[in-house]
Write a structure and sequence with these properties.
alpha/beta, nine-stranded mixed beta sheet, 15 helices
C-alpha cells in the first residue's frame, strides 16, 4: 500500500529519528498563574497573590516560531486560563496563524464567556472530579459542579457540535466514585471523559518544593485502599462496557487497569507500568513567566524572554535532553501520569 506523506508528516518523522525539532505540532501555553479552584491535588491556586502572566506581545513573539515549527494546536492551560484579563485577545493573535485552540478549564467561567469561547476557540476540556458532592469537595468551591454543568449546557445551546470533553484525576478522594463520575459526565452533556492518576512526585503545578509524605498521603491511595480501587475499576468496566466501546470513556479497559498499578507501585505491590511517550518530541510547555519545559514534569530548558521558542527547543541542551531520554527508565517518566504518544501520521 502506498502512503503519500506530506512535508509536515515527514518533518515529524525526522524529529523522532534525529531529536531535532523540525515540527512541533502542540504547544501548551499557560497564560497566567491564577486559578479559581482550590483543589487538594494541585497547588496552582496558592500563587494567586503572586500573579505572573504572558501578555499580547509575548504571544505575538511566538508566532514566528509557530510558523517555523508548523504548530497546529495551542492548548491554553492553567490554573484557569479564562481568568486572564485579555484571554481572547491572546486567542485572536494565535488564530492569525490558523492554529486550533483548546482550553483546559475548571468550568466555572464557561457560562460567562460562552459566546467568545464558541467563536474564538475550537474545544474545551473541563476538569470533572466526581459526582456533585465529590466534585465540590475536591474543588473546594461551593456549587462548582452546578456551575460546570450550566457552562457546558450554555456552550451546547450556542453550538451543539462544539466539542467539550472532561478529564478526571483519580485520587484518594474520588476513587470509589468512578461509575458515578461517568454518569455525571453524561448528565452534564459532555462528549467524552478521560481519566488520569494524580501526580504526587514532581514539582509541576506550582510545587517548587516537593510534597512531604503527609501531603502525599492526602492524595495517594493508602495501602488498604488500592485493592478496593482494583475492585472499583472492574465495576466500572463491567457496568459501563458500552461507554468503553463507543469511546465515551477515552481510555481502554486495560489502560484504566494500569491506574491500579500506579498506586500499587507506591506500596511495593508491583512495578510502575512502562509508558510510551514522545511528548518532548511533539510538544512544549510555556509557563506564565516564559519558562519553557519539554513537558509538564521535566526541568526547564529555556525562557522565551531570552530566546525564541524555536531556538530553545533546538538548543544543544534540548537536543541532548531528548537524545538521552529513555522514558522506560527515567525516574520522572516512570511515574508519569500524563504521557503523550503522538504518531507523525496523526492529524490535529
Amino acid at each position: 500500500m502506498n502512503i503519500n506523506l506530506n512535508a509536515d508528516t515527514l518533518k515529524r518523522f525526522y524529529t523522532l529519528s534525529t531529536h531535532k525539532i523540525y515540527s512541533l505540532p502542540i504547544v501548551i501555553l499557560m497564560p497566567h498563574s491564577r486559578c479559581n479552584c482550590r483543589c487538594v491535588m494541585c497547588d496552582i491556586w496558592k500563587g494567586n497573590n503572586n500573579v505572573q502572566q504572558l501578555n499580547e506581545s509575548d504571544v505575538e513573539k511566538l508566532l514566528d516560531s509557530f510558523r517555523k515549527l508548523n504548530t497546529k494546536l495551542v492548548v491554553m492551560s492553567g490554573g484557569e486560563a479564562l481568568m486572564h484579563p485579555n484571554f481572547f485577545k491572546l486567542c485572536d493573535i494565535i488564530k492569525t496563524q490558523k492554529i486550533n485552540i483548546c482550553i483546559l478549564s475548571t468550568g466555572l467561567l464557561l457560562k460567562k464567556y460562552a459566546a467568545e469561547i464558541i467563536t474564538k476557540t475550537d474545544e474545551v476540556i473541563v476538569s470533572l472530579d466526581g459526582s456533585r458532592e465529590a466534585h465540590d469537595k475536591i474543588r473546594n468551591i461551593p456549587n462548582a459542579f452546578e456551575k460546570l454543568k450550566e457552562g457546558v449546557q450554555e456552550l451546547k445551546k450556542l453550538n451543539k457540535n462544539y466539542k467539550i470533553t472532561a478529564r478526571c484525576v483519580v485520587q484518594r478522594n474520588n476513587f470509589r466514585d468512578l461509575s458515578n463520575i461517568v454518569n455525571a459526565a453524561h448528565d452534564i452533556g459532555l462528549d467524552q471523559i478521560s481519566f488520569l492518576a494524580a501526580d504526587v512526585s514532581t514539582d509541576a503545578f506550582n510545587r517548587p518544593e516537593l510534597w512531604g509524605e503527609e501531603k502525599i498521603g492526602e492524595v495517594k491511595l493508602l495501602r488498604d485502599e488500592v485493592e478496593i480501587f482494583k475492585s472499583e475499576i472492574e465495576k466500572l468496566i463491567n457496568s459501563h462496557h458500552l461507554d468503553f466501546e463507543n469511546k465515551f470513556i477515552a481510555e481502554s479497559p486495560e489502560k484504566i487497569r494500569r491506574f491500579y498499578n500506579y498506586y500499587a507501585a507506591f506500596h511495593g505491590l508491583n512495578e510502575f507500568s512502562q509508558i510510551s511517550c514522545n511528548a518532548p518530541w511533539v510538544s512544549a510547555v510555556i509557563e506564565p513567566d516564559g519558562t519553557v519545559r519539554p513537558c509538564f514534569f521535566h526541568t526547564k530548558v529555556g525562557n522565551i524572554n531570552d530566546e525564541s521558542l524555536d531556538e530553545i527547543v533546538n538548543s544543544e541542551k534540548s537536543i541532548s535532553f531528548r537524545k538521552n531520554l529513555d522514558v522506560k527508565t527515567n525516574s520522572i517518566c516512570k511515574k508519569c501520569v500524563c504521557s503523550l504518544n503522538l504518531s507523525p501520521l496523526t492529524k490535529l
